[in-house]
Amino acid sequence: EVTERLEEVVRIWTKQIRKVLVESEQIRREADDVGPSAELEHWKARMSSFNSLLDEIKSSRVKKIISILQAARSKTLKQWKELDGSITIAANEAKDNVRYLYTLDKFFGPLANASPVTMMEHIPSLMNTICMIYCTSSYYNTSERMTSLFLKITNQMINTCKMYLCEG
C-alpha cells in the first residue's frame, strides 16, 4: 500500500515535469522587434527554472521516495530516470547557452544606444564572438538558435537606426 501511494506521487511528479519539459520546447512568441538581450533573459529564466527543478529532484525527500521504490522494484522508476536525464540535459543546455550569450552582452549596449556609425564599429567583434559561439557551443550551434539570434540582433540594429533618424 505504501509503495502504491509513493508510485502515485511519482506519477504526479512525472506528469508535472513532462509538462515543464514540453512547455520549454514550445516555440516562443515574441514581438517582431525584440532585441538580443531578450534571448539572454529567456535562457537565464530557463536556467533558473530547470536548476530549481533539479534542486527539488535532488532533495532528500525525493531521494528517499525513489530509494524506497527502488527497493520495491517499482516500474515507475524507468520513466522517472528518463525524465531526470531530460531535466539534466535541459538544465545543462540553459546553463551553457547563458554562459555563451553573456559573451555577447557587451555588444547589446552599443547596438541599442550608439549611432549607426559607432554601432558598425562593433559588428566585426560581434560576428567573431557569434562565430566562436557557433563553433564551440554544445547546444547553441543550431541553425534555429543562430537564426533567432541574428534576427534579434538585426531587430536591434533597425530600432537603433530608426531612433537615430527620428532624433536627427
Automatic annotation (TrEMBL):
Biological process per Gene Ontology, one example term: microtubule-based movement
Domain of life of the native organism: Eukaryota
Residue ranges occupied by any Dynein heavy chain tail domain in the UniProt entry: 4-166
GO MF: dynein intermediate chain binding; dynein light intermediate chain binding
GO terms under cellular component: axonemal dynein complex
Name of the featured protein: DYH5 protein
The organism of origin for this protein: Piprites chloris (Wing-barred manakin)
